[in-house]
Structure formats: structure tokens, C-alpha cells
Design brief:
Blueprint lengths: L2 H14 L3 E5 L3 E7 L3 H7 L5 E7 L19 E2 L8 E4 L4 E4 L15 E2 L4 E7 L2 E6 L4 E6 L6 E2 L4 E6 L2
Antiparallel strand pairs: 1-2, 2-3, 4-5, 5-12, 6-8, 6-11, 7-10, 8-9, 10-12
Length: 163
């Protein structure tokens, strides 16, 4: 599925009010989830942003467009080899949000615990709100990005102490 087809598919899912769609191939898995209830969406006259999760499942030999299916975030060691801190980096270009909405608390706070699968932030890209999940367990040591600021692909977002 090329990027243009994927964009059109996401728009159509958002318009229909379908709660969730999962597409699986041997090379990838795409999960699209609307974040608003269909009843509220119908009352407002529009459909809100969808959450899209890309998960690489198996090695493949055909190159895929990077924009169509970016690999999931990969925690990496901090630049200082002696440091035990793990860096969570942005898997895409977009706008960083530390909380689900302005009136809600942040997903994680400095000193708080994270575990694999826990949502740590949202990155908005092309009007889609993508939940970014931790892939390691540990304590959040530092948030490296300000709320509502633009982020680049592979930009460090958080430092995690896995101990």
C-alpha cells in the first residue's frame, strides 16, 4: 500500500466512524483507531483524528516507502556509553504533546515509571494523533522536548533509567 492510498484509507475510516481497523501483511501491521465516540462525532458534524500504529512484523526484502510505514520507535542507548539511560526517540515528524488534551494530566511525569506498551506522548502528524508507547521499563529521568513543540524523525524525546 503506497502512502497516498494509505492517506485516503485513513480519511475514509475517519469519515465512517468505525472505531478501529487493523490491516496485517507479512511485512507490516497497520492499526487505525478513531479516538472519538461516533455519537459525539455525529453531533459535532465532523470526525476527529485517528490514531495510527505501525508495527514491523517480519523482515522483508522489498524496500518500502518510509512515509508509508515508519518502524516503531526503538529505544537506544544514550550517546555516553557509560550511561545506563535509554533514549526514546520520535518515530516521525510532527508536533509533540505530553498529554491527551489540555485539561488532562501528562501521560508520564519525571520520576514516574514506564513499562512496555505504556503511552508516553502523542505526536500529531497530518491531523492524526499517533500514540507513542515505551518499549522499555524504567523510571522517566528527563523529558527532552517542550509540550506542543515540533519534533523531527529520530529526535530524542525522553531519557529512561531502566534500573
Amino acid at each position: 500500500m503506497d502512502f497516498k492510498n494509505l492517506q485516503e484509507f485513513i480519511k475514509n475510516v475517519a469519515k465512517t466512524g468505525i472505531a478501529e481497523v487493523v490491516i496485517e501483511t507479512p511485512e507490516m501491521k497497520i492499526k487505525i483507531r478513531n479516538q472519538f465516540e461516533p455519537k459525539k462525532e455525529a453531533e459535532q458534524g465532523f470526525y476527529g483524528p485517528a490514531s495510527v500504529h505501525f508495527m514491523h512484523q517480519a523482515p522483508h526484502h522489498q524496500p518500502m516507502p518510509a512515509a508509508a510505514a515508519p518502524p516503531p520507535e526503538k529505544p537506544r542507548e544514550a550517546s555516553d556509553e557509560s550511561s545506563r539511560l535509554v533514549t526514546i526517540k520520535s518515530p516521525m515528524v510532527g508536533t509533540f504533546y505530553s498529554k491527551p488534551s489540555p485539561d488532562k494530566p501528562a501521560y508520564v511525569e519525571v520520576g514516574g515509571q514506564v513499562s512496555p506498551g505504556k503511552v508516553v506522548c502523542i505526536i500529531e502528524a497530518m491531523k492524526l494523533f499517533n500514540e507513542i508507547e515505551a518499549e522499555v521499563s524504567g523510571k522517566l529521568v528527563k523529558v527532552l522536548v517542550e509540550d506542543s513543540s515540533p519534533v523531527e524523525f529520530d529526535q530524542p524525546l525522553f531519557l529512561i533509567d531502566p534500573s
